[in-house]
Amino acid sequence: MTIKSKKCTKCGRVKPLEDFYKDSTVKSGRHSSCKMCEKKRFHIYRTSEQGKQRTKRYNQSEHGKEVNKRKDLKYRQAHRKVRERKKPTPRKKCCKCKQVKLLRYFGKANATYDGRQTICKACGLKYKREFSRTKKGKASNRRNQLNQKYGITPQKYDEILKEQNGGCAICGGINENGRRLAVDHNHTTGEIRGLLCNKCNSVLGWAGDSIAVLAGAIKYLNKTEDIQW
Prior knowledge:
Blueprint: E1 5-7, E2 14-16, E3 20-22, E4 30-34, H1 35-47, H2 49-60, H3 62-86, E5 91-93, E6 100-102, E7 106-108, E8 116-120, H4 121-133, H5 135-149, H6 154-163, E9 182-185, E10 192-196, H7 198-207, H8 211-223
Antiparallel strand pairs: 1-2, 3-4, 5-6, 7-8, 9-10
């Protein structure tokens, strides 16, 4: 006959065998006291002075350190997976299009709490395109371009143009397409030399700013001026 229940020697209650720890030294194969009573007894022992001293000695031993290390590693690995699974995907609402998007769709910004801009990249690009078509945007782009490339302001550009009587520093003309004159500078020192039309600027570029090449071209033109084919 198979025994399905057993009486606990501590609380005196009859409980199923599953409520008792396994014990191979006992005929029934189960411990004499139930799991609940064993947990209470173990808790009382752990909180006693004798139990605290024994636990301290065990934790300081080499075997105890190795066991605790394995337990901590197993705990961290298990709970890391839980945290990664429960961690929500970071999102943010764009203040322009009002859509909630992932943070990777927002540009970086040091001034905000989350390190991202308040508008998404798509709205930012659209705003820049619309702003660049306005009068204020064109003036801003021109000011930034002159400052970044040549280190001058639009006012300085106008002063140089006025000194050249509003024309190219070489031929005295203007661009046929109506565009502004190009800023010519020394490619070695970066010093501004003047404002040139597209044709004269191209001539200097093809000649490599070489005085010898340009002098040879002038000599060639003077030599072949009277030749007729």
